[in-house]
Amino acid sequence: MFRKSKIRIVAAIMASLMLFLTVTLGAIYLSSRLTVRRENEEMLARYVERMGEDEPGGAPDGAPEDRPAPDRGDPLIRKPDKPDDEPFGRRGEDVYGLSTFYSVVYGEDGSVSSVDTGREGLKSEDEIVAAAEKARAANKSSGRIGRLLYTVGEKDGKQFVAFVDSTVADENLTTFLKTELIAGGAALVLVFLLSLFLSSRIIKPLEENDKRQKRFVSDAGHELKTPISVISANTEILSREGDSEWLSNIRYETERMGTLVRDLLRLSRAGDAARVSGTVDLSRVVVGEELPFESVAFEKGKTLTAEIGDGITVEGDESQLKQLTAILIDNAISHGTDDAVAVTLRAEHRSAVLTVENGGDEIPREERTRLFERFYRADEARTDGDHFGLGLAIAKAIVEAHRGTISVDCRDGRVIFTVTIPLSHKK
User: Fold this and answer.
1) Distance of alpha carbon 280 from its chain centroid, rounded?
2) pLDDT 10s digits, 122-168
3) Which residue, of 48, 62, 246, 396, has the greatest Cβ tally within 10 A?
4) CATH of the domain at 414
5) Residue 372 CB neighbour total at 10 angstroms
6) What is the pTM of this model?
7) Distances 84 to 14, 51, 60, 61 between C-alpha atoms, Å
8) 176-215 tens-digit pLDDT
9) Residue 104 CB contacts under 8 Å (≥ 6 apart), including other chains
């Protein structure tokens, strides 16, 4: 039970952190990408504005000195130096100077007039012209082809297509994304380890409290057994001298108290069923527990049928599994509203599946999980005085200790309890 609580706490922390990191890092990445794209578009717009403004010679402010001069066949492709009085900013100067621009100018007849190949060796003239043709065919004033941002326009009566290469920016963003993922992964690992530590600290007081409760129930049960035995023995001695209504009441209540104490002790021991003693033939256990209940069912005017698969084995404690089977069959016989009680055991999906069903009214969904709570009784009118609402709680504790599940379902006027326990590895 507490192990599942630890898992839930860790899962909740990790899910929250992953959601937070995904949203935060995703927002940062998208914001950075939009910023870079906007900067590229602004630089491309500046490049277009300066085409043909200055005389040949010189490179833009901040550009490397060995940058080859563009083809000066057409004045439109000339890239002027940045005017000293233009507010561009130091970072903008560096980025502009390190950026690579291309352009293609067309004559009035639609033929290529001149081509600016930008940095030598990065793109061939044929590649730039082919990209320009794609841009013109798209019939858009701006867009993106691969890693080239382009703009199409006219200047001095000539059509042009200008490009800025975003390869460096894209690679920087990719590196940034990888760094984000590595940092996020490291953060997840650290938080996972921290959540394990914190979940243990959170659950530890609950575990200790549960142990104290079990110890108290066990100690109180053993202490109560002695006075109950004394009262029962004295009642028997007094009844030999002459029975009476008062002695009968004492005897009846003593028996009920003894049953309650035994159930409490069973419940406190059920949580220790995880101490697996070995491989158990569950088929033999269920058959052995079902047979004695046939006579019990007959006395109450009911029939008990069984369909038990052969050779179904699980890892567990045999005495606990016997008690589990007896609780479910006794519960079905005691609370069934018709005369048919059925027990089945089969192997399914690497699990042993035990079902016990009886006739009964529909149990509201909100009450189905409460059936396994201690001292809970769904129908007081149909509960006899020998049951205290501990049987199903004991059954649940045994099943969970065997790493299984127990549930109840209602359909077609039948109440069906289903237990699933992993099969033995030897199966």
Assistant:
1) 33
2) 788 888 889 988 988 888 888 888 888 899 988 877 889 988 888 87
3) 396
4) 3.30.565.10
5) 20
6) 0.51
7) 54, 17, 11, 9
8) 888 888 988 898 899 888 888 888 888 888 778 777 776 7
9) 112, 114, 115, 116, 128, 129, 132, 160, 161
| Domain presence at residue 414 | yes
Q: What does the alpha-carbon distance between residue 373 and residue 354 come to, in Å, rounded to a whole number?
A: 20
In a domain, 391, yes or no: yes
What gap in Å lies between CA 360 and CA 410, rounded to an integer? Answer: 8
Asked whether the CA dihedral 162, 167, 173, 177 is positive or negative, the reply is positive
pLDDT at 67 over 70: no
Q: How many domains does the chain have?
A: 1
Q: In this structure, how many other beta carbons lie within 10 angstroms of the beta carbon of residue 127?
A: 14
- Parent domain of 380: 275-422
Report d(CA 66, CA 69) in Å as an integer. 9
Asked if residue 327 lies in contact with residue 343, where contact means CB atoms within 8 angstroms, the answer is no
Q: Quick one: tokens of 87? A: 């507010």
Residue found under tokens 């007896």:
326
> What residues contact 95, with CB distance under 8 A and at least 6 apart?
39, 43
